[in-house]
Design a protein that fits this description.
binds NADP nicotinamide-adenine-dinucleotide phosphate, 8-stranded mixed β-sheet, alpha/beta
Length: about 290
């Protein structure tokens, strides 16, 4: 029986739900995060019945609000005295029109970059209490297709497109998670690993907003038969979360068949630092 305490964000649907289900079947304590109470409760009931595991709980928060991410982390800290695995899976794509949150940040960067950065920072005290903790963050191969990042315009006030915002948010989150490795080293913390994964292309609800137009609907329809199931796509998250092969392994990127290399085209330690500093500045009021 598994004995890890595992938080999976975005566990109400798609890849996160399948990740939570597989880990629940191994007997671990699972905290399922979702946005909608009704949807998260229903996913929780399904997983509880299917796994026979009664060490599952659920908690909701809208990660388009950094204030809610903070409240969510506070609740986790009140309830648990350690965390062994954090799976930063919640993510989204939006429409072709740039939109901002109530806190005035571009939506894609908020959910895919600032929220996982903030949540990871806030949960570090719990992760430090684990004998061996892992942070697994779901990125995407789309990080290779976003074109040249403009580090003076991370939230895409100019030249916004859905694909650029999504791809760059995933490129930046890979850099942020790598940066955690050096930050933790500097702080003398050596019990937490930080890896990123991608699920290939898997059927899920991810395109609910980005495939509203007729042309994107047609592309999705043609592409769908080539896609993996959400359960297949969850394999990289599950592997990075729990595999004994990855004990102590940090700063890597995994796909469905094992380790891969993320794009280094626009990478430099300076660029990584710029993105880290920018994101820290955004999340600072909530730390
Ligand atoms: N599917 C793919 O082919 C693919 C490829 C590469 C990367 N990914 C990544 O895989 C991860 C999971 O995506 P998926 O494909 O499984 O999509 P999905 O079916 O849409 O699931 C996304 C999960 O994130 C939650 N979420 C979305 N917006 C949120 C918000 N504002 N606050 C809190 N939670 C929110 C969703 O909650 P609701 O149920 O309420 O919507 C859901 O639980 C994402 O990070 C995505 O970028 C997916």
């Amino acid at each position: 029986m598994g004995n890890k305490i595992i938080l999976v964000t975005g566990a109400s649907d798609g890849i996160g739900k399948e990740t939570a289900k597989a880990l629940a079947k191994q007997g671990h304590t699972i905290i399922m995060h979702g946005r909608s109470l009704q949807k998260t409760k229903s996913a929780y009931e399904e997983i509880k019945a299917e796994s026979g595991n009664d060490k599952i709980t659920y908690l909701t928060a809208d990660f388009l609000s950094l204030a809610e991410v903070r409240q969510f982390a506070d609740k986790i800290k009140q309830k648990y005295d350690r965390l062994d695995v954090l799976v930063n899976n919640a993510g989204a794509q939006f429409t072709g029109k740039r939109e901002t949150t109530l806190e005035r940040h571009e939506k894609t960067m908020t959910i895919n970059l600032f929220a996982p950065h903030l949540l990871t920072m806030l949960l570090l005290p719990l992760l430090k209490k684990s004998s061996s903790a892992r942070v697994v963050t779901v990125a995407s191969t789309a990080h290779k297709m976003a074109g040249k990042p403009d580090l003076n315009d991370i939230e895409l006030n100019n030249n916004y497109s859905m694909g650029k915002a999504y791809g760059l948010s995933k490129l930046y989150v890979i850099w942020i998670m790598r940066h955690f490795v050096s930050e933790m080293k500097r702080a003398g913390v050596n019990n937490i690993t930080f890896n990123t994964v991608h699920p290939a292309s898997a059927t899920s609800s991810l395109g609910r907003e980005s495939t509203k137009s007729l042309s994107t609907k047609i592309i999705y329809f043609l592409w769908k038969p080539l896609m993996k199931t959400a359960a297949q796509g969850a394999a990289s998250s599950i592997y990075a979360a729990i595999s004994s092969e990855l004990e102590g392994v940090t700063g890597k990127y995994y796909g469905l068949k094992g380790e891969e290399k993320p794009s280094e085209k626009y990478y430099s330690p300076e660029n990584e630092q710029i993105v880290w500093n920018y994101s820290i500045n955004i999340i600072k009021p909530y730390l």
